[in-house]
Amino acid sequence: MSRDYIEKILRARVYDVAIESPLEKASRLSTRTGNRILLKREDEQQIFSFKLRGAYNKIYHLTPDERAAGVVAASAGNHAQGVALAGKRLGVSTTIVMPVTTPAIKVETVRRLGGKAVLQGDSYDEAYAHALKLATAKGLTFIHPFDDPDVIAGQGTIGMELLRQHADPIDAVFVPVGGGGLIAGVAAYIKHIRPETKVIGVEPEDSPTLERAMAKGRRVTLPRVGLFADGVAVRQIGKETFRVARKLVDEVILVNTDEICAAIKDVFDETRSVSEPAGALAIAGIKKYVAREKISGQTLIAILSGANVNFDRLRHIAERAEVGEQREALFAVQIPEKPGSFLGFCRALGKRSITEFNYRFSDQQSAQVFCGVELRNGNTERAELVELLTGKGFEVVDLTDNETAKLHIRYMVGGHAPEALNEKLFRFEFPERPGALLDFLKGLTRGWNISLFHYRNHGSAYGRVLVGVQLKGKATKEFRRYMESSGYAYSEETDNPAYQLFAKGG
Questions:
Q1: Catalytic residue ranges
Q2: Domains delineated in the chain
Q3: How many CB atoms lie within 10 A of CB 334?
Q4: Is the entire prediction scored with pTM above 0.85?
Q5: Which of 149, 153, 330, 491 has the smallest count of CB within 10 Å of its CB?
Q6: Residue 352's closest CA among 460, 465, 434, 459?
């Protein structure tokens, strides 16, 4: 089967717009995993994605009449840019149907490249249906994003480059999977030339298009797909791509959102570039594969497929990367509602750094704390930590794998506390260093009751804490005197309207 595509790949016309992307060693990852890990940098293409290869090859091979009539495509991202660029270079009119929810920057990019952007529908499926209607009504050629032999062959040139760039043995190549055009093309070439090299697909757990199809032996339509890795958010693998992949792909690895975020951080650490979630899938897959197989000394290649990430996503990615790297655990902990409880809890953690601490007074008996704790030995230490805290009398619930807790609840800890009488609110800053939070808490153990506490370590030079303290009369003056003498930068926020509206005590 792979033989059918070899000639098409060898004859593919891609280098009018594409570069032979670099194959670079990932030094940090190689050292950490004990394997030789290489990155195929498709994020360095002029549209920051491999998609221009297949789009250009398809449009180049149209007949003169088809070119003259123009083409239409449906896409919310990288395929749209590839089609628009190809049309501009070849003098072909391009119409790209995009969902109305498409970020403005992507719409503007298509127009800058000479494409006509048509906004239609709230989803890709609706845009796709409208594009097919336009193709029929106006006699346009529809350029499929993946399920087309010329598109597959264009993407297959990546496999051809890989084998030329690395003449030594390759144990496995990891490929992100959406509709399957990339993995079908890469597998067709690599398996024909080096059948001993594994080709492994990587998909998000919430978009297992190829994994589910291979398990059932037929294409399936997923009822829904996750949108975080939007570049591979496809409900059904292509018919032609599945025909090729089911025969040539060795396996499919599924990764979760946290693991993808950790992989984006890995790419940044290696290259100082920011991958899109779909673009980092292969790295996440390699890490999971190495941990599962307990291998070392192998040569593993990851295809970094794109870097078209929206800037507003970076905060979410950074927030989840540490959990994905097994460097942070999230817990709900019940502690006694009395002075000194915070300090006792922090002492129980030993020298581990606290990454987040959210607390709001609830009643006079006990307090629920949402906290993040740094891990140095992954999930093994996480289990040990739960056992340690439980042994010291704390009630602990591990929330590290709780998606609702990570997406929502961590930001909702708090609210008004009518029983937190005489509460004063203060904002503090102190130099961020190991043990700094513990030192801060030690200074507050003078009988003052803490009724609100929020701290989050963002890796900056200064730790920032919001604290509510129950103070009345003389105690208020003593507290302020202490803060003046402590050297901490602070300000009182009791009259802050945000506090008055959403979190004020009694």
A1: 51, 305
A2: 2-49+149-318 (3.40.50.1100), 52-142 (3.40.50.1100), 326-502 (3.40.1020.10)
A3: 15
A4: no
A5: 491
A6: 434
